[in-house]
C-alpha cells in the first residue's frame, strides 16, 4: 500500500490495466500508454476497435506481434520518456507503431527511431488501425471474439474516465496542446450520456469527467440549448447514481452554477481547477486570465455554496521572468486560498511553445528550490486539512485489497494524483468498487487511515 508522493508530473494517468484473455491463434497487439488520462481514453478507443476486429491484447512485448506506443508530448521530459518507451519496445519486439501527441511531430520520432513501422498523430484512430492491419492482418472469429458493451477499459472496473471533448481554444504560451489536438470539439450530450449509462450498467461506480477545458464543453456548438452546456450535462450524469468527478474546470464565472449540484449530492464536491499561478504579471506572460484576486473571490463563493467542496489545482513554478516577489505572491495566495489538493510542475521549454522565446528564464537550481518551497507550503496545508478529518466518518470507494489491507479513496481524492485512505484492520470483507463508511483515526501529509464504520 504505497502513499502518494508529490510529483513533478501531476498530469499522469494511472498505469493501464491490460486485459490478457486470448484464444489460440488470435493475433496479439501490445500497448504502451503514456501521459494523461485523456491519452488513456484514446488508448482504450484504439484497443476497443482492435478487439472488435479480432485482435487480442498482449500484456508484454514478447507475446505481441506488434506494439502500439501512445506517446505524450506535453513537456520535453515527457517527449524524452516517449522516445525511451519507443526504443524499449523496438528492442524487445521490433515492430512498433507510434501514435499520440508526439505523433504530431513524425520527423522527431523517425529521426530518433527510423525503424518504427508507422507514426500517427493524436486521435487518428483510423490511421492506427491501418498500420496495425498492415503489420498484423486481422483474423476475427465472430462466434468467439465478443466485445463487452463498454469496450476495452484500461482502468479498474469500478471507475472510468469519460472524455467529453477534444482540443482547446486557449492560447497559453507554455502549451502546445491546441497545435497537437486542435480547437475545442465537443461530443454530443446524448452520446456522452449513452456511454456513461453503459459504464454504470457494467458496474462502474465512479465517472471521472475529463477534457482539455471541461468548463467550455459545448460552447463550440451552434444553436445549443444551454448557454453553458456543462451544467445540464453534469446534472444528467449525476442522475445515473455513480460518483461524478469533474477535472480540468477553468474558473469562469459561471462555474458557480456547478457548485449547487455538488451541494445537492448529484456531483462529487470536488473541483479540479488549473490555476497555474497567482501573480497577475506571471499570468499575463502565460497568456492566462490575470485576475487572481477575482479567483479568491470565486473560491470563497464556491465554499459558501458547498462548504465541503475539495479544491484541487496544478501550478507552474520557475516560469520565464518569474521574480522572487512573484513567487512569494503565489505562496501568499496559497496561504489565503487553502487549496485541499495541489500539484506542481517546474517550467520546461517545449518545442513550438511561445514561452521559449520569453526573456529571463529561471535557472534550474532556482526552479528546484522554488518547487521545494512550494511543496513545503502545500504539504503543510494538506497535513492540517487532513488532521481535521480525524474523528470524522466519511464515505470511501475501495480501489484495491491485498494481504496488508485495503487502499481506498475519499470523495476528495482522484486516482493516482491525490491521496488515499488505508484500512489495515477489519478489511477482509472488502472488494474493489465497494463504497463504505469509514471512521478516520489517523492522518499524514497526504493520506488518511481508518476503520470500517460499525453498522448501527
UniProtKB/TrEMBL annotation:
Underlying gene: rimO
The protein's required cofactors: [4Fe-4S] cluster
Gene3D superfamilies xrefs: Methylthiotransferase, N-terminal domain, Nucleic acid-binding proteins, tm_1862 like domain
Annotated function: Catalyzes the methylthiolation of an aspartic acid residue of ribosomal protein uS12.
Cellular compartments annotated: Cytoplasm
Location of the MTTase N-terminal domain: 27-137
Cofactor, free-text remark: Binds 2 [4Fe-4S] clusters. One cluster is coordinated with 3 cysteines and an exchangeable S-adenosyl-L-methionine.
This protein's record includes keyword Glycosyltransferase: no
Catalytic activity: L-aspartate(89)-[ribosomal protein uS12]-hydrogen + (sulfur carrier)-SH + AH2 + 2 S-adenosyl-L-methionine = 3-methylsulfanyl-L-aspartate(89)-[ribosomal protein uS12]-hydrogen + (sulfur carrier)-H + 5'-deoxyadenosine + L-methionine + A + S-adenosyl-L-homocysteine + 2 H(+)
Enzyme class (EC, first level): transferase
Keyword terms of this UniProt record: 4Fe-4S, Cytoplasm, Iron, Iron-sulfur, Metal-binding, Ribonucleoprotein, Ribosomal protein, S-adenosyl-L-methionine, Transferase
Protein name: Ribosomal protein uS12 methylthiotransferase RimO
Residues where [4Fe-4S] cluster 2 binds: 168, 172, 175
Organism field: Thalassobacter stenotrophicus
Annotated region (Disordered), positions in chain: 1-29
Domain TRAM span(s) in chain numbering: 387-454
Binding site for [4Fe-4S] cluster 1: 36, 72, 101
EC number(s) recorded for this UniProt protein: 2.8.4.4
